[in-house]
């Protein structure tokens, strides 16, 4: 009982009587065991429920992702005319960026030797 | 690690079971089935958070808060279901042949009715401090109220019970 009533005997007596009269039956050893068994079952049930909820949530997210991806616009191939124009533009850009190489010519001495060899071969 | 937690929980349940059941029973108007349901729910919550606590005093205060919250949750649902917490049936009607001699059932009903008629805050304060012997600070922590509010609730509850159960204390002195 509370310590807050020590100053008033009548109140203390009233509270003591309420405390003694208004209390549940004490559990027997068998009831204590049964209580613990039910508690363990409840804890296991909650653990299973949490697993189930986690699984369901994961599945729901996966389904949602699939659905969202299914509705996203897919990039379609461009029409033929547009595609050719794009290729032309690319080629023009490449040509501008890398001008055609000069035709290779041998130095004069080497050219004379090359001519002689060609003549020897009857060309 | 897990077995250590299980062991701690076992000790914890054994240490707090009877008091938890008694507090829930008293706060729920003597409904034994509801008291067990509430106490079990509080223990389930405690099981999940037990690893965070070390000191027994801290643990007890924390558990009492869980228990009071579970009682309140049960009461809210009971109101929604329109279930009367205090009716004319004898509370805790399941017979237990091993328990000690029971107090007068009529007296118990009277006290139960007087307690049930108190506002929630006053009933919590009276049960926790006067019947269960918690300090004002512990009761304030368990209920989430200020100590001053608890004092006020206690005073009002006692005044009301004194007038409703005025004949009880003199009977005892006969």
Keyword list:
heterodimer; A: 123 residues; mainly alpha; 71% helix; rod-shaped; B: 174 residues; Rna Polymerase Sigma Factor, Chain: A; Arc Repressor Mutant, subunit A; 8 helices; 72% helix; 0% strand; globular
Polypeptide structure, described:
The complex is a heterodimer of chains A (123) and B (174). With 123 residues, chain A is mainly alpha-helical. Chain A has a domain at 1-69. Chain A has helices at 9-21, 29-71, 80-97, 108-120. The radius of gyration of chain A is 48 Å and the shape is rod-shaped. Chain A starts with 8 loop residues before the first helix and ends with a helix. With 174 residues, chain B is mainly α. The radius of gyration of chain B is 17 Å and the shape is globular. The interface between A and B is large, with 33 and 45 residues.
Oligomer: heterodimer
What is the number of beta strands of chain A? Answer: 0
Main beta sheet strand tally, sense and closure of chain B: none
Strand content of chain A: under 5%
Amino-to-carboxy terminus distance of chain A: 129 Å
Average the pLDDT over all residues of chain B and give the rounded result.
Answer: 84
Number of strands of chain B: 0
Strand-pairing-aware structural class of chain B: mainly alpha
The number of helical runs of chain B is 8
- SSE sequence of chain B, one letter per element: HHHHHHHH
Structural class of chain A, by secondary structure, is mainly alpha
The number of helical segments of chain A is 4
Shape of chain A, please?
Answer: rod-shaped
**Rg over C-alpha atoms of chain A, rounded to the nearest angstrom:** 48 Å
Q: In CATH terms, what is the architecture of the largest domain in chain B?
A: Orthogonal Bundle
CATH class (first level) name of the largest domain in chain B: Mainly Alpha
Principal-axes geometry of chain B comes out as: globular
CATH superfamily of the largest domain in chain B: RNA polymerase sigma factor, region 2, helix turn helix motif
Strand portion of chain B, in percent?
under 5%
CATH topology of the largest domain in chain B: Rna Polymerase Sigma Factor, Chain: A
């Amino acid at each position: 009982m509370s310590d807050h009533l020590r100053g008033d005997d009548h109140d203390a007596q009233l509270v003591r009587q309420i405390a003694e009269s208004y209390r549940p039956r004490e559990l027997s050893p068998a009831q204590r065991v049964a209580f613990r068994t039910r508690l363990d079952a409840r804890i296991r049930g909650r653990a299973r429920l949490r697993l189930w909820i986690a699984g369901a949530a994961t599945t729901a997210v996966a389904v949602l992702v699939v659905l969202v991806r299914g509705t996203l616009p897919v990039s379609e191939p461009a029409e033929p005319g547009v595609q050719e124009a794009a290729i032309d533009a690319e080629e023009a850009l490449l040509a501008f960026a890398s001008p055609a190489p000069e035709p290779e010519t041998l130095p004069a001495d080497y050219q004379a030797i090359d001519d002689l060899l060609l003549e020897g071969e009857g060309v | 690690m897990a077995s250590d937690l299980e062991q701690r929980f076992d000790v914890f349940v054994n240490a707090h079971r009877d008091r938890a059941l008694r507090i829930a029973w008293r706060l729920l108007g003597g409904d034994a089935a509801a008291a067990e349901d509430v106490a079990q729910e509080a223990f389930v919550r405690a099981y999940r958070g037990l690893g965070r606590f070390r000191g027994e005093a801290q643990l007890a205060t924390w558990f009492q808060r869980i228990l009071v919250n579970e009682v309140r949750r049960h009461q809210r649902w009971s109101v929604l279901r329109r279930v009367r917490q205090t009716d004319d049936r004898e509370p805790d009607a399941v017979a237990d042949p091993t328990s000690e001699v029971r107090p007068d059932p009529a007296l118990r009903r009277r006290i139960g009715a007087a307690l049930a008629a108190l506002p929630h805050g006053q009933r919590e304060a009276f049960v926790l401090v006067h019947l269960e012997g918690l300090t004002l600070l512990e009761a304030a922590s368990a209920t989430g109220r200020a100590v001053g509010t608890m004092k006020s609730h206690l005073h009002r509850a006692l005044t009301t019970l004194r007038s409703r159960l005025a004949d009880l204390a003199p009977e005892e002195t006969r």
